UniProtKB/TrEMBL annotation:
Listed cofactors: Zn(2+)
UniProt keyword annotation of Hydrolase present: yes
Protein name in UniProt: Zn-dependent hydrolase
Xref: InterPro entries: Amidase_Cbmase, ArgE/DapE_CS, Bact_exopeptidase_dim_dom, Peptidase_M20, Peptidase_M20_dimer
Manner of cofactor binding, per the entry note: Binds 2 Zn(2+) ions per subunit.
Top-rank lineage group of the source organism: Bacteria
Organism of origin: Fictibacillus arsenicus
Amino acid sequence: MINIDRLWDRIEELSNIGRTPDNGVTRFSYTPAEHDANELVKSYMQLAGLDVSYDTVGNLIGTKYGTEGLSAILLGSHIDTVPNGGKFDGSLGVLTAIEVMHSLQDQNITLKHPVKVIAFKDEEGSRFGFGMIGSRAVAGTLTDQDLDMKDVEGISIREALIEQGFEPKNIHSSKIDNVKVYLELHIEQGKVLENHHTPVGIVTGIAGPLWLKFKLAGEAEHAGATPMGQRKDPLVAASLIISEIEKIASKYSDAVATVGSLSVTPGGVNVIPGAVEFTVDIRDINEQLRDCLEKEIKDYAAKIVNERNIKMTIEELQRVSPVLCSQDIQNAIKQSVYELDYPVIWLPSGAGHDAMQFKDIFPLGMIFVRSKDGLSHNPKEFTAKEDVKAGAEIMLNTLVKLDKA
């Protein structure tokens, strides 16, 4: 059985590294704080009976060898954070995976498959603006050119690797082959489970983000001297489009669309704006539906700017395909949920996770645990102890089922 007190104490102990004044956590990749956190997690892995090593990009990997020469089961998440983030995001997945292996050791249970618990490097992308470095390396998709990405101080990923004692020339050796499945536990970072009054959920897939930048150009004129009917105001056009984006997205059951950035030029209190830029983040686990939503938004925007004589260009910043979780893994999780007498809830993930990197490489699955008030990337991020225990028990049972399958 899961030792919830041991797991809870480790969550608290790890959160002390990188602690901020308002009780948040800041741990960027390849920094002293993250190094210390890795070393602490390494000690937990060793106590759980795992053979521990770092790969060439700094992924921390604890391995428990199986009784048969079979493909590996990977468990993992990350321990880096956003600025002033919470103590559960990422870290809970790593620590729960370790606790699952520790529990098996306590019960003298050895699995047929080897199991690798991985603390992936830099999932968040907080330092270099380029996330999931570790999981990309494990998937074999991290390139030498990616290492040229720099932080705000001009330090590249390559330089950070060397400073930490890793060898960037050998990043391709971090790729892990012969994998049976990947399983990740994570906090939901939303309110679905809380609204359903259930501690755990089965993730159906991970929404792929599509990022667009709308650029609207009108004519900057004097706010007092230009009659209302003679204006070419791109901000008014943008406001109509932004308002409609919310209405359009609401028609789709799992889709979301967010305007997260808006800039107005020239920005004078007595000047009609001459240009406006805003971004739109569109997500859905169904790529076809996401594309339909995108088209509806673009068509409505074109209608508005045509009516108001505004020029518009749309720049595509990012287009990532959604990722579907393995049906077999979902079924194994479902059986574990049933056996432990919890309600069964399926839900998509709107946020990105390391699991995304393994699309089309090997089967993947995710377990969500409830987030209080849906808060994440926030010092107030919280998951109750009993919910952590539920998630850990389900992960343990699911691992055993996947090992037998």
